[in-house]
Amino acid sequence: MSGWRPPGVVRSVRFRLTALYSAMLFALAALVVGGIYLGLSRSTDAHPITRTYQAEKLIRGPDGQLRSHGTLTVAEVKDVESAVSYQTRQTIWKYSLGMLGGLFVASLGIGWVLSGRVLRPVRSIARTAEEIQVTDLSRRIRLGGPDDELRHLAGTIDSMLDRLDHAFGQQRQLIDDASHELRTPLTVIRANLDAALANPKATEEERQRAAALVDRATTRMTRLVEDLLATTRRASGAYGDTDVDLSAVVREAGEEFEPLAAARGLTLEYRLADGLEVIGDPDALRRAIGNLLSNAVRLAPGGSRITVAAGHLRGWHWIAVRDQGPGIRVEDRARVFDRFWRGQSAGDERERHTGLGLAIVRQIVEAHGGQARVFSQAGADTTFVLWLRPQLGGDELPEVPDGDPTGAPFQAPPAAAPAGG
């Protein structure tokens, strides 16, 4: 019948393991019995008695005389021995067949029980996986028992669930935060459109003011969407690795902000070492440095100085942006790289700030195997430092140095040894 499928039990792994175990055990037993039977057949001359003789039966009486008591059927000794061997082989064959049949039935039962015990952790894994939903990834398998391959598999799945739970949590948090951030400019746009632009009695001044507010709100939404896209690309690892000269990238990023800094009376000071080579995405690194410079130019008081530096310290390359702005409170330092964090101050300038810039900076640096640090106090200078792995650095690197490298003696990277020693 077309389309027929065997029952579910027959298709199960447990049944296949049982059948395989029984078949192998039966084949092994049959091979042993067949070998024994073959050895007996080759070592003995076994056949039934085919030739018999009639002999007179004589019995010696008390008087010593032999008297005839009829006849009896006799055979030669070698024929009797062959007949005994033949009967023994037949008996062994019959019992062997019976034992093989019993062994096969017993092996089916034993294989079914053993395969069930072996596959019990798999059923536990499958049952837990079925109970896990996308909206609740908190369940874990946490398989006990011996430290074998199945326990390693369960541990691997638990680790994968941890990463998925963390990723989904970040995604939900990002969606919630983005929805909240987009709601404010949308409310501003709707309120101004209803109050001024859609009002026929609104004056020209009110219309211009409403248009300016709508423009600022749309600008903020545009920046927010761009930052969200950048965050998504960083999280997905969608960047191309190539050789990067950090000093050149830092210089290029600084030159982009020189006009903005000059417009606010700020001075950009460069302290860049040579030979700072890393493997990474130059556009992403340029964006990270640009986000730091954007904050520095926006927050630094007019007439102050912004220092852009890059160097090498204790096996690590570093990039630093230092400004003389309002600083960051000690209790806020751990949050500066969080999404949508803006600190305590607020104003017209901050309304254009999405709160994703520093989060993108940390994401880019960590995607390159580095770390982002901040050194600041309220009312004091602020230094953001990006630590990156050097191009020629080995897999084993010391811990990222503590402290602000811009306050330490400037150190260039060690010269590479010439090829061939």
Shape estimate: elongated
Q: Average pLDDT value? A: 77
Element order: H for helix, E for strand: HHEEHHHEHEEHEEHEE
Uncertain segments: 345-352, 408-421
What's the assembly state of these chains?
A: single chain
* Secondary structure tally: strands: 9
Sheet with most strands: strand arrangement? 4-6-7-9-8
Give Rg in angstroms: 44 Å
What's the number of helices? 8
- End-to-end distance: 76 Å
Major sheet characteristics = 5 strands, mixed
Assign the structural class, choosing from mainly alpha, mainly beta, alpha/beta, alpha+beta, or little secondary structure: alpha+beta
How helix-rich are the residues, as a percent range? 40-55%
Description:
- It is a single chain.
- The protein contains eight helices and nine strands.
- By secondary structure, it is α+β, with helices and mostly antiparallel strands.
- A five-stranded mixed sheet has the order 4-6-7-9-8.
In short:
By secondary structure, the chain is α+β, with helices and mostly antiparallel strands. The protein is 52% helix and 14% strand. It is built from 8 helices and 9 strands.
Task: Furnish the topology, listing elements before pairings.
Layout: H1 8-11, H2 13-43, E1 53-60, E2 66-74, H3 77-131, H4 149-197, H5 204-236, E3 242-245, H6 246-263, E4 267-272, E5 277-280, H7 282-299, E6 305-313, E7 316-323, H8 357-367, E8 371-376, E9 382-388
Parallel strand pairs: 4-6
Antiparallel strand pairs: 1-2, 3-5, 6-7, 7-9, 8-9
